[in-house]
Amino acid sequence: MNPYQNLDEHPQGNLPSSDPNLSPEQDFVEIDHHLSPKLSKQTSHEPIEFKKRFSFIHDADNITKMEHMELYWEDLTIKAVGKVKKNIGGKTMRVIEEKVILNSLKGVVSPSTFTAILGPSGSGKTTLLNFLSGRIVSSNLVMNGTLKMNNVPIDSIEKYSNKIAFVQQDDILMAVFTPREALIFSANIRLNLSQEKKEEKVNKLLRDLGLEKCADTIIGNELIRGVSGGERKRTSIGVELLTNPSMIFLDEPTTGLDSNTAVTIMYLLRDMANSGRTIVSVIHQPSTEIFREFDKLILICKGNIIYQGDAQAAVDYFTSINYECPSMTNPSDFYMKIMNPEGLMIEMMEKGMNVNKENKKELSEKFEERVSYFTKKYKESKNYEELCSKETIPVKIEKYANTVSWIKQFVLLFKREFIKVFKNPFDLRVRLSQYIIFSCVCIIVYHDV
Ligand SMILES: Nc1ncnc2c1ncn2[C@@H]1O[C@H](COP(=O)(O)OP(=O)(O)O)[C@@H](O)[C@H]1O
Ligand SMILES: [Mg+2]
After folding, report:
1. What CA–CA distance (Å, rounded) separates 165 from 155?
2. Which of 15, 155, 162, 368 has its CA 20 to 30 A from that of 131?
3. Would residue 136 count as lying in a domain?
4. Domain total for the chain?
5. Is 422 a member of any domain?
6. Of 47, 56, 64, nearest to 18 (Cα)?
7. Per residue in 133-155, pLDDT tens?
């Protein structure tokens, strides 16, 4: 039976087993400690029993080809440079302005570890994730810093791109494809294997991710009805898993999903970390259940890291700096509250202060002071000290090698565009009407010229 079958009817923890040979009693298995030697040491919470349900992840062939990757960054500063309109001496002028997005950050993400990044909107989470995964594309961003892969300084992460996967916040799947077609397309364009082997991999993934039931339903989008949000997200993750990455970055994989579906996505990430992979994910408003699955936590506020370390030890850390998480409160809600100006405003109102236009400036200054305090305290903390004196074992990693020729990739992409147009008759009709109307306008305007 499939772990995701009738997902919505199954409360988490009650999901049926993925392995048809397992009895319900064998359904839950302990974390595979030999695959994840660090995990037992790293998690400070009681080891939770997980279902080892994702056979693709633990596939012997995939495990042997997987490499342990530890990524370390230091003095990472990212600034956005742009022209802004300013009123200078009564005149509106366009001046070049620099905006610091990430402010001299130091950090590490390790194998066999699930690192969660939390922070308010606009704090720089996606920018950090994009940088670490080698996906910064904006030309107006100026970057400085040092990167080390397994303790070896590297000038660019791009050469490791065959070992790194990135699951974007917005799914970039083709709406007219089915999950099976999306996976087969990805396998064709990225894997240099026989068709039979590729199909075998795809079928295994579909089974593992609980997508068998909807494998031949179109993915859809806002306009075309298709699979559910959770199934779409699992397809996006599956597309990335095909290449057997050692390091996976995800930007808000649970946003917009119901709590049960979000938890099952977490189990998948947890299982990937257990298998030795480095998992880094930005998570939006995690529930207590989801928070329990994190090994490490990075809190980012206004481009500064204000906490980095064991996720379950963060509550004690904040208590030690006089920010105590109230009992019966989800720690992540507490962190979000203290990292947001709105949270401070609520605190001030609770103390009987009137927040109005006049003291809004005062509120913003107070919030700046709070962020500076958190940043200073974090830089004085034991966690930061440990990070500065971090010694890692050098491990050789194979360099990037593209396995499918560019001609084949070109043909496949061309074919995909063709399918996209013909599988979406509405889009085709709209486009055709556009071209006809545009041609008519051109004829009317220019016919006598
Ligand atoms: N290329 C860019 N040019 C200018 N500003 C940018 C650029 N990329 C990001 N920013 C700004 O940097 C801040 C952090 O963005 P982002 O990393 O997307 O935040 P988050 O993911 O935490 O919501 C935002 O204020 C955003 O507007
Ligand atoms: Mg973001």
Report:
1. 19
2. 368
3. no
4. 1
5. yes
6. 56
7. 888 778 888 888 888 988 888 88
